[in-house]
């Protein structure tokens, strides 16, 4: 047996390889808090769901290229074909669609979660290829914090407050006294990162907060969202009502004269225009604690007491990314900026605000002296984009107008979807609508190692390698290690890496040199490493040459400082360090947003009733509010076919947590199979009864592989939460996803329980 160094989204590790197979893994020796998710790697690599060879949907082959019947996607068997035939089919379709319909008719779909490796990141390779082919329709923003990306630049000048660097944990531990978590800060979420995380630091810093005596309050419908080592005070809140609470806290500060007038006058623009709304002078409704109490479910005295505590001590406010993944998701972030501005602690050590603590690895770590290398792209020759969360609307409504961030555009007429990296049947809301959308394009091509629902709904499926079957360099902008990702095993079955697939297609289409730059895998890795040495600047002397790095297996990247404070420069000199907003200050009222004239996104923080919440009319039919949390046992939908995720299932289904009172009212016991449903669809799940969720709230984590029932295709028998969520943008401004919550009803399932088939390959027909 020998050890091979490698990297993943959930941590660096050493693969134990024996006889050409991975038999186990060991955590990276420098990781202080390794994730147990790496334990799923060996079995996931060899899972029954691996795609063995190129496959083509039977109906698509019978009807001919470009004329396939899309309604058969997800149901028809596949026909195995050779790589040459598969590549010829794909190249032919790309050429046909761009000639007949233009390059905007090709959607280059990807979320970039296929590998922690920098070179083999599927999203970059797909977009390089499609750009070299003449262009494509791209998606902008993302599912994690898409609303924040679009919205925060209007009021803060950049999205940094959501993506980092944020005020460091070290600053909070040394100077902070009170940390208030809106939406919690679940430590599990800090163990995953898009680019990988070799050193998991958040857990140790949470321990440091506990030792320092920092008081922590968790405002969330879910108690376990708060990190246990700090023994947080739990204040349960109705889902989707955080904006009302934040406004009421601000109202208390202002009405009692506890707000920082000097900060508002010096560093903010527009408070005098927000104040009439806050105090009820403009609409007759003061945003008092008494007003917010029946909306949020939090007693008015609790709200007032919390506001006073914030004003008396050094306070850090944070909201999870999940808060902006909801209808009007821009508003809680805007309201938190308003509250933090009223407190006047922005830019002070251990105080202020930041979004996303507990939402990903490395958030809260200080900035690094230099970044990991980044794969260079090729500029898309055409200007055709849609917001990421509007994929279904785009496919179903070609030519329809839509608003986004101050512009009105039309959806392109997509004839070919080319997807590599990510699984939209996990990411995207309202899965049944997505299935209808995926039936429309003439051709869908997917690169995948496993038979995910996205692969099952494709016409041509090309088996892609996992990262363990190729060489790469791992690293992320928030991680202080760069990892040499050595190939551990030969490709499983006939799998090929994305670069090899696209190179072969580029050769067929006549632009191989443009795509590859004449470099193979090894040459690209050397090139990227040299770029990293160049970007390191003064630190370059500390970096070995590529061969030495590859042999020693990793580099440690130093931090600029051990303590960072967001907006410290701005606070020290707001004239010299202006924000990139129209005013150069924090825009609590946005003239630019006012100019857009959107009815669903006013020019200042506003409480707007969401389309689904427990205070709305739909709660009569669906009286439980589902929170679609990040899963404990996998990353999104990744490794759901592995043993770690299987350990979290109940009755082979995704687990749903119900409050004991709600379970008793429905005759549901621990371990029961239940049906979770609303007007959009339904799913089966396994019940867990616990007081860790508020009464009226259920928790069903996202990411269970979609497995529609034969008897009712709108029902997922495995527990995919997105059959229940609504496909509606956060607002016309950001058009972000609103998939974190939904109203549902839950009942004990008395029908037949079909075996879960999500992890088995689809039917195969003779070629």
Strand and helix layout:
Elements: E1 2-6, E2 13-18, E3 21-27, H1 41-45, E4 55-57, H2 58-63, E5 78-80, H3 83-101, E6 106-109, H4 122-132, E7 138-140, H5 146-156, H6 160-163, H7 169-175, E8 178-182, H8 202-212, E9 215-219, E10 233-235, H9 242-255, H10 261-267, E11 268-269, H11 271-278, H12 289-296, H13 300-312, E12 315-319, H14 330-343, E13 352-355, E14 385-387, H15 391-396, E15 401-404, E16 407-410, E17 416-420, H16 424-427, H17 431-438, E18 443-448, H18 453-456, E19 460-463, E20 472-474, E21 481-485, H19 498-509, H20 512-516, H21 521-535, H22 546-552, E22 554-556, H23 568-572, E23 586-587, H24 591-596, E24 624-627, H25 643-646, E25 655-658, H26 660-665, E26 673-678, E27 681-689, E28 697-700, E29 715-716, E30 741-748
Parallel strand pairs: 6-17, 7-14, 8-9, 8-12, 9-10, 11-23, 12-13, 17-18, 18-19, 24-28, 25-27, 27-29
Antiparallel strand pairs: 1-2, 2-3, 4-5, 4-19, 15-16, 20-21, 21-22, 24-30, 25-28, 26-27, 26-30
Helix pairs in contact: 3-19, 4-19, 7-8, 9-12, 9-13, 9-14, 12-13
Folded structure, characterized:
The protein contains 26 helices and 30 strands. By secondary structure, the chain is of the alpha/beta class. It folds into 3 domains: 2-141 and 385-474 and 487-518, 3-Layer(aba) Sandwich (Rossmann fold); 146-368 and 565-596, Dimethylsulfoxide Reductase, domain 2 (3-Layer(aba) Sandwich), CATH 3.40.228; 617-748, Barwin-like endoglucanases (Beta Barrel), CATH 2.40.40.20. The strands form 8 sheets. A 6-stranded mixed sheet has the order 5-4-19-18-17-6. β15 and β16 (407-410) form a beta hairpin. α3 (83-101) crosses α19 (498-509). The relative contact order is 0.17.
């Amino acid at each position: 047996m020998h050890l091979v160094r490698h990297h993943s989204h959930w941590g660096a590790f050493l693969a134990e390889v024996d006889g050409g197979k991975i038999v186990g893994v060991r955590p990276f020796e420098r990781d202080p808090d390794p994730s147990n998710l790496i334990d799923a790697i060996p079995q996931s690599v060899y899972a029954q769901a691996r795609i063995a060879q190129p496959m083509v949907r039977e109906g698509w082959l019978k009807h001919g290229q470009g004329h396939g019947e899309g309604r058969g996607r997800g149901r028809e068997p596949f026909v195995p074909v050779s790589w040459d035939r598969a590549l010829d089919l794909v190249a032919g379709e790309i050429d046909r669609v761009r000639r007949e319909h233009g390059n905007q008719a090709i959607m280059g779909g990807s979320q970039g979660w296929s590998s922690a490796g920098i070179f083999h990141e599927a999203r970059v390779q797909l977009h390089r290829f499609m750009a070299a082919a003449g262009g494509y329709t791209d998606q902008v923003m993302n599912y994690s914090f898409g609303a924040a990306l679009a919205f925060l630049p209007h009021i803060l000048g950049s999205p940094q407050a959501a993506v980092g660097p944020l005020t460091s944990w070290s600053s909070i531990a040394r100077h902070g006294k009170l940390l208030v978590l809106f939406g919690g800060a679940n430590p599990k979420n800090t163990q995953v990162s898009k680019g990988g995380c070799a050193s998991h630091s958040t857990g140790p810093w949470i321990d440091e907060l506990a030792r320092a005596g920092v008081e922590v309050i968790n405002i969330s419908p879910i108690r376990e969202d708060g990190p246990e080592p700090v023994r947080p005070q739990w204040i349960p809140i109705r889902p989707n009502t955080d904006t009302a609470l934040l406004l009421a806290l601000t109202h208390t500060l202002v009405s009692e004269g506890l707000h920082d007038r000097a900060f508002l006058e010096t560093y903010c623009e527009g408070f005098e225009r927000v104040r009439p709304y806050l105090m009820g002078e403009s609409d007759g409704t003061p945003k008092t604690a008494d007003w917010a109490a029946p909306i949020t479910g939090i007693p008015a005295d609790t709200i007032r007491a919390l506001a006073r505590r914030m004003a008396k001590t050094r306070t850090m406010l944070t909201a999870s990314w999940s808060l902006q993944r909801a209808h009007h998701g821009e508003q809680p972030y805007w309201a938190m900026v308003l509250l933090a501005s009223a407190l006047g602690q922005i830019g002070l050590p251990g105080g202020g605000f930041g979004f996303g603590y507990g939402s990903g690895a490395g958030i809260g770590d200080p900035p690094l002296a230099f970044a990991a290398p980044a794969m260079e792209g090729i500029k898309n020759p055409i200007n055709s984009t849609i917001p990421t969360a509007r994929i279904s609307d785009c496919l179903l409504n070609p030519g329809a107008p839509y608003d986004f961030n101050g512009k009105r555009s039309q959806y392109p007429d997509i004839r070919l979807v080319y997807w590599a990296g990510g699984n939209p049947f996990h990411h995207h809301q309202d899965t049944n609508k997505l299935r209808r959308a995926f039936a429309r394009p003439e051709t869908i091509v997917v690169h995948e190692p496993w038979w995910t629902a996205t692969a099952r709904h494709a016409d041509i499926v090309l088996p892609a390698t996992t990262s363990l079957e190729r060489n790469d360099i791992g690293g992320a902008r928030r991680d202080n290690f760069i990892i040499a990702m050595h190939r551990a095993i030969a490709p499983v079955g006939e799998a090929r890496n994305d670069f090899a697939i696209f190179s072969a297609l580029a050769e067929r289409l006549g632009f191989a040199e443009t795509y590859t730059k004449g470099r193979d895998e090894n040459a690209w890795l050397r090139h990227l490493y040299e770029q990293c040495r160049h970007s390191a600047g003064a630190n370059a002397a500390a970096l070995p040459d590529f061969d030495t790095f590859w042999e020693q297996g990793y580099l440690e990247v130093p931090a600029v400082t051990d303590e960072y404070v967001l907006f410290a420069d701005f606070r020290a000199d707001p004239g010299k360090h202006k924000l990139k907003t129209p005013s150069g200050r924090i825009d609590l009222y946005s003239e630019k947003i006012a100019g857009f004239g959107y009815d669903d996104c006013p020019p200042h923080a506003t409480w707007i009733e969401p389309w689904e919440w427990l205070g709305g009319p739909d709660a009569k039919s669906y009286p439980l509010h589902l929170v679609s949390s990040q899963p404990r046992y996998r990353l999104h939908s990744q490794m759901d076919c592995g043993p770690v995720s299987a350990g979290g299932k109940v009755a082979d289904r995704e687990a749903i947590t119900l409050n004991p009172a709600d379970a008793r009212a429905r005759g549901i016991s621990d371990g029961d199979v239940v049906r979770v449903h609303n007007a959009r669809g339904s799913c089966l799940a396994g019940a867990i009864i616990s007081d860790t969720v508020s009464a009226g709230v259920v928790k069903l984590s996202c990411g269970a592989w979609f497995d529609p029932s034969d008897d009712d295709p709108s029902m997922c028998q495995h527990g995919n939460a997105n059959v229940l969520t609504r496909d509606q943008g956060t607002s016309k401004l950001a058009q972000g996803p609103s998939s974190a919550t939904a109203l549902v009803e839950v009942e004990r399932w008395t029908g037949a329980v079909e075996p879960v088939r999500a992890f088995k390959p689809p039917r195969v027909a003779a070629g």
